[in-house]
Amino acid sequence: MDKFMQLAIDEAKKGRSEGGIPIGSVLVKDGKVIATGHNKRVQENNPILHGEMDCLNNAGRIGSYRNTMIYSTLMPCYMCAGTIVQFKIPKVIVGESKTFSGAREFMESHGVEVVDLNLPECIEMMEDFIQKKPELWDEDIMEL
Question: Residues in domain CMP/dCMP-type deaminase (predicted)?
Answer without folding.
Answer: 1-113
